[in-house]
Amino acid sequence: MEINPYIEKAKTGDQVAFTYLLDHYWNEVYGFMLKRTENETDAEDITIETFSKAFDKIATYNPEFQFNTWLIAIAKNVHIDMLRKKKSTVFVEITDEEDHQAYNIADTTPSIEDALITEQNLSRLLQFIKELKPHYQEVIQLRYFQEMSYQEIAEQLNEPLSNVKIKLLRAKKLLAEIIESKK
């Protein structure tokens, strides 16, 4: 399978390409970090941070190397940073310019996951949401029940905007999978 067209589209800010790359490489990066950390929460946080950094810096990707190798290298660095800080939550310092670039990534077009979420009645939806990990429950609750913007969520959680976007994307995907499995 040729991944380079998706990488090129992602470099232009194409949200569909970002989503494809996230879906395509999530399990590989997460699995790698799970083996290293032996902790699901840390592995998930590192994976989220990895994709956040990769999408912020995708213009610097060198196509002479495999994309998954590049992602794993970023993941290793994020893990090292996390160990240095001796915290389970990973924060990244980003400039205002990078923050603005990440803000422009957001696609307001409802995705398949959004359509599934809005189709369900509220009580069943709340039951499904309770099956998610707490940090995913929180971003879903802030976005869809408190109707906060990505920026407001980032400020509320004291996390970079790009992390919030990745967490929300992952939470919606996992929630859609739960809903599909219970149909």
TrEMBL record:
One of its GO terms (molecular function) is sigma factor activity. Keywords: Sigma factor, Transcription, Transcription regulation. InterPro entries: RNA_pol_sigma-70-like, RNA_pol_sigma-70_dom, RNA_pol_sigma70_r2, RNA_pol_sigma70_r4_t2, RNA_pol_sigma_r2, RNA_pol_sigma_r3/r4-like, WH-like_DNA-bd_sf. GO terms for biological process: DNA-templated transcription initiation. Gene3D superfamilies: 1.10.1740.10, Winged helix-like DNA-binding domain superfamily/Winged helix DNA-binding domain. The gene is sigW_2. Residues 22-88 form the RNA polymerase sigma-70 region domain. Belongs to the sigma-70 factor family. ECF subfamily. This is ECF RNA polymerase sigma factor SigW. CDD domains: Sigma70_r4. Residues 124-175 form the RNA polymerase sigma factor 70 region 4 type domain.
